[in-house]
Amino acid sequence: MPIFDYVCEKCRHEILDVFQKFDEPNLIYCPECGEDTLKKQLGRANFQLKGDGWYRPSPTDEKSESE
């Protein structure tokens, strides 16, 4: 399920990490100012790449001489 963020175009209030399907209606009303000026934005990714084919460097990895 996608994760969305909403930002009010009037007062800049942010609503973060809203789990919604693409076909669900957008949130409209800002809880801060009460206006119908919320704008949907795509939030963070909701998946991880796992397995032998994906390399994810860790903070303890040593750098090679050429780096």
Q: What would you say this structure looks like, in words?
A:
The chain is mainly beta and 67 residues long. It has a domain at 3-42. The chain contains no helices and 3 strands. The chain has a 3-stranded antiparallel beta sheet, with no helix packed on it. The termini are far apart. The model has no long low-confidence stretch (mean pLDDT 81).
Mean pLDDT: 81
Number of strands: 3
Identify low-pLDDT runs: none
Q: Looking at the structure, what is the overall shape?
A: elongated
The side-by-side strand order for the widest beta sheet comes to: 2-1-3
Helix content: under 10%
Helical run tally: 0
The main β sheet shows up as: 3 strands, antiparallel
Structural class: mainly beta
What's this, in brief?
The protein has strands at 3-8, 14-19, 38-42. It is mainly beta.
Q: Which tags fit this structure?
A:
about 70 residues, mainly beta, 3-stranded antiparallel β-sheet, 3 strands
Topology diagram in text:
Elements: E1 3-8, E2 14-19, E3 38-42
Antiparallel strand pairs: 1-2, 1-3
